[in-house]
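The instructor's notes for this session suggest beginning with a concrete chain rather than abstract definitions. Hand out the sequence below and ask the class to guess, before any prediction is shown, which regions might be ordered.
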Amino acid sequence: MHIIKRRLGLAFIIVLLAGFAAFVTAQQDVNPDANISFPPPVYLLRGVMPIMGSANVAGMTHYYVEFRRMNDDGTPQAENAPWFPALYSEIPITDGELGRWDTRLVQDGLYEIRLNIAVPSRNPVLVMVSPLRVENEIPPFLITPTPTLTPTRALPTLLPTPTALGPNPNGTPRPTQSGLENQPRVTAIVNANLRSGDSTLYPIVGVLYAGEVAQVIGLSNLNSRWYQVRAPNGTVGWIAPSTVATSGDFSTVPFVEPPPPPTLTPVPATATPSTLPDLLVNGFRFDPLSPACGQAFSIFMNIANIGTAPSTSGGVVLVQDVLVSTNQTIATGSGTFNPMPVGGNFVVVVAMFVNAAPNQQHRIIVSIDTSNQVPETNETNNSYTQDYTLAQGSCP
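After discussion, reveal the predicted structure:
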């Protein structure tokens, strides 16, 4: 048995060293605006890992890092095998932290990761790194800690936690809030507008930047699921549920009636183009069919264009898992879709992991094109909800 393990270990090292040699050669032509500097190939990942590099391509709208399992022999899967999102951001980064990947949500094994930078009206910019080994369960026959490659240069300094973010884009310091540990709160997962009411019809009164935390002081009583929050700088406004993750106890949060909607000036019919795309969710399924607590599952969505013109750009799909009894967001995920012709369809796969409230009713909320990149004839059908009961799974 020891001889077999030794031979398997030697074969794996040979495969990894070959991949590392190819990586060293490829690094001679690194794109300074689109690259992954860490982790390098042949690296062992465990727990929550920072993904370092640059995503700052001219005209980009957003980027995301996605992963895909490799075959056990170290070869990649077929070209049409799906990729799963690990992290998403709309903020350009140069030689910094792109985000963090929680490898505990996937099975141990060999993986490849890909930086996917979306640029309108052109193909996305793709950067791949492989092979990488995820090993959260340490093999019992290992006596000493698993060695890792020593970088030839110091790793970039990791970004501070959201409570100590750097200056705002305008150069002013970011305000912080303290004492919210046990209070209902939201954390922005993208740069999000604060509005005077619970819909995009209301004017913007402020902004909550990605990673910032705000106190929740009310819930809309109009079933819009928007939150009334107090931002770190003291601004009170309403924020969309598709842009934040929630935490804390929401049982005592009062329901608040938003102000009356603003009066809109009628737009002449001739001002609206006669042909525009119209996007909606045309199909939805779980894989496996019955999601279980503490076990990863995927959501397959068919995004369709039922409008009278093709969409000239793709967009982002945000997914939230909300506990129905408390209206608390338990988990979030995201994916993207490509430009679509009239009558076209695009399948979006979003990986999810829910580890709370088994045997209770949950609600999946899907929000299409949250950044309003695609002008449409109908913006009111860009959301979709699906209720389900979360199975016991591996949760206590």
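Then share the key points. The chain has three domains: 2-134, 173-256, 274-389. DSSP finds one helix and 23 strands in the chain.
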